[in-house]
Each structure stands twice: as C-alpha cells, then as structure tokens.
Amino acid sequence: MCGNRGKGRGGSGRATKERVGDDASKVFDKIPYRDQVCYGSIIVGLAQNSRSFEALSYFANLKSCGIGSKMYNVLEALHATAKLIALEQCRIIHDHAVVIGFDLGMVVGTVLVDGYGKCSLVSDAHGVFDELVSEMSII
C-alpha cells in the first residue's frame, strides 16, 4: 500500500483519502487496547486527510475514555476545528489545553489564533496572540 498512492491506485486523490480514512478506522476498531499513541495516530491521520469531523469524534472518544492527551492530539483536534470553523469545539479544546497545561506553547497558541480567526472571533484570536507575545523572550 505504501508504494501505490493517489491516482496510481486508480482513483482520485479525494477518493484515496476517503479509503485511507475508512481503512484506518477499521484497523483502529480492531485494536483491543487503545492508548494515547493509537488515538493520536487516528486523529492525526484523519485530520490531515480532510476528515476533520471524524478526527474530532475520535478526540471526544479519547477524552470520554479517560485517556490522557498528548500535544499532537490537541494540536490536530484544534486544526480540525479550524478547518470546520467549529467555534464551540475550538473553545472546548482550548479549555482542555489550559487544564492539561498545553496552552502556553507557541505551537498551540498559533493554532488557536488560526482557529479563532477562522471562526471570526478576532478579539479572542488577538487575546491569544497577546498572551503569546508576552510569553516570548525577544532578544
């Protein structure tokens, strides 16, 4: 499968992405013990293949199972909310990032600015940006 991607498999790029997401979900469903890495892989894979809604669904499942979040899980979930312009989910994941201590990083902050900006919340995006600037040490 690694050597046959895209149109070389006989389909459009979009159809291939849909198959990859379906295949990944099938494999994930067969895993008996799902940890942070399993969830991270499916969330990242779906989010990066234009399946943001499904990525957010897996992120919600991760949280409901009580499995801790890794930075990349939070980042990809935030990217998915930005792609979907899903304001409430963006705020929920932002709150989650604050609780687990991931809100102070430049990468998470940048994704939050992007998400809030796409949701037309310029004041919230500006607030996150201001926090980032105050945390930066400029030499």
Described by strand count, sense and barrel closure, the largest sheet is: none
The figure for the number of domains is: 1
Query: Structural class, please?
Result: mainly alpha
Number of strands: 0
Gyration radius (Cα, Å) is 17 Å
Beta-strand percentage range: under 5%
State the helicity in percent bands: over 70%
- The end-to-end distance, rounded to whole angstroms, is 48 Å
Protein name: Pentatricopeptide repeat-containing protein
Write the layout of secondary structure elements.
Layout: H1 13-30, H2 36-48, H3 52-64, H4 71-84, H5 87-100, H6 106-118, H7 122-135
Helix pairs in contact: 1-2, 2-3, 2-4, 3-4, 4-5, 4-6, 5-6, 6-7
Question: What would you note in describing this structure?
Answer:
The protein is mainly alpha-helical and 139 residues long. The chain has one domain (6-135). It contains 7 helices and no strands. The protein has helices at residues 13-30, 36-48, 52-64, 71-84, 87-100, 106-118, 122-135. Helix 1 packs antiparallel against helix 2 (36-48), helix 4 runs antiparallel to helix 5 (87-100) and helix 5 packs antiparallel against helix 6 (106-118). The longest helix has 18 residues, at 13-30. The protein starts with 12 loop residues before the first helix and ends with a helix. It comes from Camellia lanceoleosa. This is Pentatricopeptide repeat-containing protein.
